[in-house]
Structure formats: C-alpha cells, structure tokens
Design goal:
- Helix 1 packs parallel to helix 3, helix 2 crosses helix 15 and helix 6 (163-170) packs antiparallel against helix 13.
- The chain is an alpha/beta fold and 359 residues long.
- It has a single domain (3-358), classed as Alpha-Beta Complex (2-enoyl-CoA Hydratase, Chain A, domain 1).
- 47% of the residues lie in helices and 11% in strands.
- The chain is built from 17 helices and 10 strands.
- The protein is globular.
Length: 359
Amino acid sequence: MDDSTVPAEIEFSQKGAIGYILLTRPKALNALTLGMCELLLPQLRAWKSYPAVKAIVVRGGGEKAFCAGGDIVRLYEDGRARKPYPRDFWRIEYRCNVLIKRFPKPYVALVDGIAMGGGVGLSVHGSYRVATDCTTFAMPETGIGLFPDVGGSYFLPRMPGATGMYIALTGKRLKGADCVALGLAQAFVPRDRLADLETGLTQTHGTLEDIDRIVKGFAQPVTDAPIESERANIDKHFGKDSVEAIIDSLAADGGEWATAKRETLKIKSPLSLKVTFQQVKIGGTLSMEDCMKMEWRMANRFSLAQDFYEGVRALLIDKDNKPQWAHTTLAEVTDAEVNAYFAPMPGDELDLSDIVAET
C-alpha cells in the first residue's frame, strides 16, 4: 500500500506559539502504537529547542478518548510470538514519558474522554493537565496481568494518602472532578468550552502563568468529587504494609464498600497485585528516571510471564472474563518471585542518558 494512503496516527502542527499534538486514531480510542511514539519523541525534541514554540498542547481526536492506552492487542500478539515489538514499544514509550516529565516548556494535556495506561503517561507527567466532564482516568493493568507502568511508579505513590495504592491495585476509574481533587489535573473545564479554551491557548505567550490564567477563565470549581467520599476508607485499608493485610482489613471491616473492594481485588492477577504493591512502595523513593528504569525491567519480565497473555485473552480477545492466572491465591506468590521482577538486567537496561543530558 502506498504510504500516502495510510491515515496518520498522530499529527503535529504549530498554532501561534503552541506546538500542537493531535492523536488521530479515534476508532481505536487513540491507543498508542510504536509508530506514534517514534514520531512523538523526535518532534518533542525539535520543539524543545525551537524558540518559536513556547508551549505544547496535546489532545485526542474524536469524542470518546484522549488515549485509552497502548495497543494491547498488538503487544499480546507479538509478545506471544516472541517478536521484538513489545520491547521496542516500551523502550521508546518510556523515553517519551521521561522527556515529557523533564520538558523545559509548558506541556498542556487536555484530558477529554478516556485516559488509561499509555494515555496517562502522555498526560500526567506534563506540567499542566485539564480534565473535563467526560474524563475517565484509570490504571487498570492488574486486571490484565500487568502493572501500572508509564511512570505509575512515580506519580502513584505521590498522590494523597493511600489513593495511589488504591488506584494501582483496583484499577478504579476516576472522573474529571476526581482528577482535580487528587492533583492529577490542575483544572476542570467542561467539554463544551474546550474548543474555546484551545483557541485561547493558541493566543498565549506560552508561559505557565499565562496558560494558567487562560485556563482559569474557562474552568469551573470542583465541589463534588466522588472520590472524596471514599477517602477515609481508602486511607484506612489501602495504607497497610502488604496486599494480604489490605484484604484482611477489608474483610474485617465487612461494610458494603470494603466488601466490594475485596471482591474487586479477588479477580485481579495475584502476581500483578503483589508486584504492583512493591512497585508503588519502591517508586516513592525514586526519581522519575529510576522509576522508568525499574519499569523497563518489570515490563520485560511480564512479557515472558503467563498472566499478561491470559489477562488480555480473557478480557480483550475471547472476552470470557475468566482469566486462569498462574497463581490462584496471593499466598502462592513468593517474595523471591516478586523480587525477580525488579532485578537488574545487565547489558539490557533502559538508557535515558541522552534524554537527561538534553534537558
């Protein structure tokens, strides 16, 4: 097929002083592909050093999603066949995450619609995030036998109280108001005002202060974030020192909320739960760069394990919602098995030296 007939998956343009990124896979909920990341990284690098571009704005095309994550089915198919795609994808995606975190100019994410997994990585590390009444934010990876990557190690343990651990383990879906209440977004702008906000941003001088002023002109106060009613329970139960202790605490509580969350955890991959718990605990002590190096090790180990492929099969391929996890209970997952996911990979670590040097 002639390349000219292949629809673009990501588009770049300049509007005023703004470098504008549009994800253009709306039928696939703007899920990230290797090709998109291969275009994004050099474009961000170019804009970083281009004086006429003062700030970056990123959003998803269509009405359903900002970005629903990585192209999980492709990762599943090529991973099962032991093809290089998953490693190539994670390597460049994680480098993009670090560059976004370290980007020296304002990076504004308009998180309208679904933002999960890779979409979180494209937004939460930016310097300014806008949520809407249509935002759905989640890290659902423990349900597919994986872990909350794309920098989950960094931002989850830095969320208020035990909310990061709660979101990591349960895959809880947050609405736009929740995102503002938890610091995942700086402002709440209704979708019907988003187009006008975008126009306003193209007229900005590009400073973070100017961007904040313009956004606040369209924003609405958040007074009814649903997550706030859960905070006491979240901190009570999800601040424990192990997954087993969390589940025991929920069981001892016996209330409706606690029972529902216990049932949620019971259907997740036991291996993913225990590895994710350790990931969040460790990540709170690490820099963004070291978090991504750790996640590179974890991703490579998960790509060789049963649970990722079984989880994707059950939820996304066959859709029988009956994953047969490698372990039937948390007790079967040993500390040694968990620790192996974090062990160094001599000669195959994630190299971020050039990204760090540039920023």
